[in-house]
Amino acid sequence: MAEKNYRILVINPGSTSTKVGLFEGDACVFSANVAHDAQKLKEIGDVSAQLPYRRDMILDILDQNKVDLASVDAFVGRGGGLMPCEGGVYQIEEKLLHDARIGANGVQHPAQLGSQLAHEFARFSGNKPAFVVNPPDTDELCDDARMTGIRGVYRNVHLHALNLKETAIRHAATLGKRYEDCDFIVCHIGGGISISAHKHGRMIDGYDIVGGEGPMTPTRCGAVPVIEAFAYLEEHGINTTRRLCQRSGGFADLLGSSDALEVCRRAEAGDEAASRAWSAMEYQIVKYIASMAGVLHGHVDGILLGGGMVHNQGLVDYIREGCGWIAPVTAYPGEFELEAMAAGAVRVLSGKEEVRHYTGSPVFSGFACFE
């Protein structure tokens, strides 16, 4: 008997738009990027309060394109706002919705609306199943990766988990293997840059990209010597320093632009500052990729590159030259976020993966021997 082509509606809210896609099995049959008025969002204020506004705009687009919600088998939204949890497909239940509404992880981001919107649409269609897949706070770090040299202070992880894991799953399939049987270094290189080590289906190490770790990016400062960060903080204050870690560092601070295409063009045209910043970013990416090879003890089945900046062939060539000795480097320009959400739902509906239930308890809360 042929496997059913489940119809999945996926919802991925961003800062000023919401991406929506309807999938039948692996095929995307409809997609739209629903633009929202930035001033209207600002007037609404709180992220979760934007729900009715975004929902109604999405419903209008779906109606205009004759997308019948009654024909959808399941709904999937981004899983922002949740406490750290293991990777997987989580059923949207009341505890998950509560934490998404309040932003339980302390980060206010439109991704919080993903699960809330999926829940709304599922309710409209007769309480169909609704899920989140590999939430942004997916945490599968090995114990050694959690430690710092300060008692009671542990490393966290904030990465593009959804795209990282989907890229690894897809690449494993090209090798005729399961993700769970492979070891990869997987990177997402865009406005933010995630570099992670995947061992037998678990993301055992990676950098806290909103906490000031990893390479410089178009919008984040990356790792900075702590003593220098203290000096900067004393002069400029904690809020300015925090913003450099999260959204106003990197190219934005050095060059006044977070547009990677513009920075690359400036560098190629002979702009010394742009050339220096671009070169430093490339250098740091290679440096951090190589560090993950050590975490995997040199057993690396592939180095996988995803994200918008991977469209830049010069960047890919630089990484391949710097890291190709570790393992083959494969580029997957762009991202698979919508596809990843749909694929997760299909795995659960077809019985290939067991659905998980979100508890709200962080996957890690410290080592008893240091408490």
Explain how this protein is built.
- It is an enzyme of class 2 (transferase).
- It is found in: Cytoplasm.
- It catalyses: butanoate + ATP = butanoyl phosphate + ADP.
- Belongs to the acetokinase family.
- The chain has 371 residues and is α/β, with parallel strands linked by helices.
- The protein folds into two domains: 7-138 and 338-370, Nucleotidyltransferase, domain 5, CATH 3.30.420; 161-334, ATPase, nucleotide binding domain (Nucleotidyltransferase, domain 5).
- The protein has 13 helices and twelve strands.
- It has helices at residues 38-44, 51-64, 94-102, 112-124, 143-146, 161-174, 226-236, 238-248, 251-255, 260-268, 272-295, 313-323, 337-349, and strands at 7-13, 17-24, 27-35, 74-77, 89-91, 130-133, 183-189, 193-199, 202-206, 302-307, 329-333, 356-357.
- It has a seven-stranded mixed beta sheet. Strands 9-8-7-10-11 form a five-stranded mixed beta sheet, sandwiched between helices.
- The model has no long low-confidence stretch (mean pLDDT 94).
